[in-house]
Amino acid sequence: MIHIDKQIKELNEKAQTYSKDLENILTEIQKVVVGQNYPLERLIISLIADGHILLEGLPGLAKTLMIKTLSDCIDSDFKRIQFTPDLLPADITGTKIYNQGTAKFTTKRGPIFANFILADEINRSPPKVQSALLEAMQERQVTISGETYPLPKPFLVMATQNPLETEGTYTLPEAQIDRFMLKVNVQYPTKSEEKNIIRRMTTSEIPKVDKIITPLKIMEIQKFSRTIYLDEKIDNYITDIVHATRTPKEFGLDIGQYIEYGASPRASIWLALAGKAHALISGRGYVTPEDIKAIAPDILRHRIILAYEALAEDIKTDTIIEQLLKTVKIP
Prior knowledge:
It is a single chain. 47% of the residues lie in helices and 15% in strands. It is built from 13 helices and 11 strands. The strands form 4 sheets. It has a 5-stranded parallel sheet with strand order 2-5-8-1-9. Strands 3-4 form a two-stranded antiparallel sheet. A hairpin with a 4-residue loop joins strand 3 and strand 4 (104-109). Helix 10 (265-281) packs across helix 11 (289-300). The longest helix is centred in the first third of the chain and has 28 residues, at 2-29.
């Protein structure tokens, strides 16, 4: 017990230092992005936990600006890929080009070779194009004509979807959407935030951010995040939450008829890693149940597949998650 207390004390001290770095990044981004603190924090959590994030929201809500500004703060490469119906996998990953002068093939790398990728309107492209991106996300490498090339580090993909327009779109299959660590719904700004947006974005000087941290420092924070203490009771809590999505009756929940499929084991892994990242942002070297509860909706939102009964009764995934979190016993 004394050993664990000493370990947590040391982790707390390091976590407080790294937390200040992350707070500085958020403050720097807020020079440009007005409001949207929730998705911004989730974006930083994805980066620290070394995952990827799917944002769903209407156009004009600063989704592109968020990841572009984050990239600018970190002195890293940023690429935006606009997904369209005529996009090909090679347009993302790259291809081999024949050089007549040298009579040799040279590799032309695609836009995926950057630290931060914005996959804009990912559901606008056919499945084979989506698969090319999702494979790169999972494997952290790309194969071009038999040769494998590692992707840069850190590497984060932020994909976007418009929740209203479905004409001419290709829905992401459940098995592929599962590869995103978080799915976050982006909301409209408040009235006061919108006034601030008008003032800030209609002057002669558009705000800019400074490069305040290096990619190496981000990788150092990522490595530390995994060392944050996760008690066995928190492990059990995570397991109970995920299993409640599969067998709700065991937990006294009468919602089984609304769930077609529960969350996959990836949900358990990401709940633990995202919980650690959330604790780190809070300046703690240990995970609490509150960390897990805070991050759970964004982890589970795209992993619980609703049954027809839920769709017929207009029951949303978030409503089911809310019931789960209220019912599952907190350690």
